[in-house]
Amino acid sequence: MIDRRAAWAMLARQLTSQIVVSTYSSATDWLATGERALNYFSFGAMGLASSYGLGLALARPERRTIVLDGDGSLLMNLGTLVTIGALAPKNFVHIVACNGSYEANGGHPVPNRDVDLAGMARAAGIANAHRVTELEGFENLIPALLTGDGPHFVELKIEQGELSRRDYKDLYRASRRAAFRAALDGVPQNG
Asked: How is the chain split into domains, by residue range?
């Protein structure tokens, strides 16, 4: 099993100009890796991170879009896999941190902890679908996720962790959204 924070830190070290869309526990742990203007946080929209990410990938084909999701969140909107498979954006990466729970809502178990999300993604038309259970395996996969044609799907088996502190006002602050819009348009930011 993988520590999500370690996986996100490993990914963060290799990013340059990619868009990162994240939600709930994945978002708070992602923000802990550091500020980036191209972070888009989708709190309050359980299940929709992949839909937001798909929209950004289609609207900005020149940028790779990476979605950091959770298994509970994805289970709220499984139809997104079929849409992603059908549209097949080459610049799209969907990483689902799977700990078998609706972690953000108190850690209640998902109905089937043994569900094969990577298999579901493949069945939906996403050929580059992987199940990763060790941090080293994730590290080895990152270069392909950042450079290879997608869409990519990664079922990342993680440990159940403690809930991270959530500061919704900070995640949604206007300056963060303005920085994201400016970065999408290539406008340099001060500070």
From this structure: 4-184
Cβ neighbours, 10 Å, residue 152: 25
At 48, the amino acid letter reads L
Q: Helix (H, G, I), strand (E, B), or coil: what is residue 138?
A: helix
Q: What topology is assigned to 4-184 in CATH?
A: Rossmann fold (3.40.50)
* Residue 71: closest CA among 21, 26, 40: 26
Contact between 4 and 158 under an 8 Å Cβ cutoff? The reply is: yes
- pLDDT reported for residue 191: 31
Strand residue runs (E) in 88-182: 92-98, 101-102, 108-109, 128-132, 152-157
Determine the Cα–Cα distance for residues 72 and 178; give it in Å rounded to an integer.
Answer: 29
Question: Tokens standing for 15?
Answer: 């990013």
- CB–CB of 92/151 below 8 Å? yes
Question: Would you state the structure tokens that stand for residue 12, as one six-digit string?
Answer: 């963060």
Over residues 16-41, mean pLDDT: 91
Phi, psi of 132 (to 5 degrees): -120, 130
Q: How confident is the model at residue 77 (pLDDT cuts 50, 70, 90)?
A: very high
